[in-house]
Every structure is written in structure tokens, then in C-alpha cells.
Amino acid sequence: MSLIPFKQVDVFTDTPYLGNPVAVILDGQGLSPEAMQRIANWTNLSETTFVLPPTQPGADYRVRIFTPQSELPFAGHPTLGTAHALMEAGRISAKNGKLVQECGAGLVELTVTPCEGASPLIAFKLPEPRLVAMSDAQVDEMEAILEAAHQ
Predict the structure, then answer these.
(1) Residues with catalytic annotation?
(2) pLDDT at residue 151 in the model
(3) Residues 6+ apart with CB under 8 A from 13
(4) pLDDT at residue 38 above 90?
């Protein structure tokens, strides 16, 4: 088995071990979705990201986000942590203070603001939400969780 380079990033802090951790696999090329899921389960963090070449014009990179159980189209702290890890590793740099991430939710624009003597501040514009009707089985499961039957 070959080594897979990754970083673990503490998001929302500049103090080690006080942030919201995310594992960032710096090069996810060649990994199947099943392998990505196994790695995410192994890291046992709330999310693990896998960086891939972009497929959409205008994107600087593409990211797939996995929890230990499933893939997510978008998540906030993994978006910030992945951008930080890529810049810190010298794999990307902001152009005019901007980065564009491609993910399951589409293109996400990030703003990068340099901070003297510290990591840059990274912010993003939330992607437009997509509303999807719940299936009957999902409604039944939600009612059971909430202990409230639909009237």
C-alpha cells in the first residue's frame, strides 16, 4: 500500500487542538469512492476531504467530503480547512484574494485575507440550497424520531 499525504487542520483557531479538526487528503486522484469512505472511517473525524483536479471551468480545485458514514455535497469547516491545507502545502494560491472550490453543491467562492504573522482569514459564500422532497420512508423515520405522527 502506498502512502497517501494528508494534513489534519484545526479549523476556527490558531491554537493547536482547540479547533474543529478535518483531515485533508492532498491528492485523492486514483482513490475510488469506497477507498475514500474507508479512509474517512479510519480518520474517525467528523469530516475528511479529498482534493481532486477541477472538472468545472473557473474552479481552482475539486473536493469530495466524507463523514465516517457517507459523502456530503458541502460542509463549512471542511471547505475552510481544505483551502488552508492546500495553501499551506503550496499547492494553490489565491488569485486577487479569491479561490474557487468545486464540490457536490457546485462552485464555492472563498475570500482569502492575509494576516500579518498569522494564517490568512478564509471565508466563503454559501452555495444556494437545493430543496428536495422527503420520501415517504424518510417522513416515517422523521416522525418516529420526533415521536410525532403526521396528521
Answers:
(1) 47
(2) 62
(3) 19
(4) yes
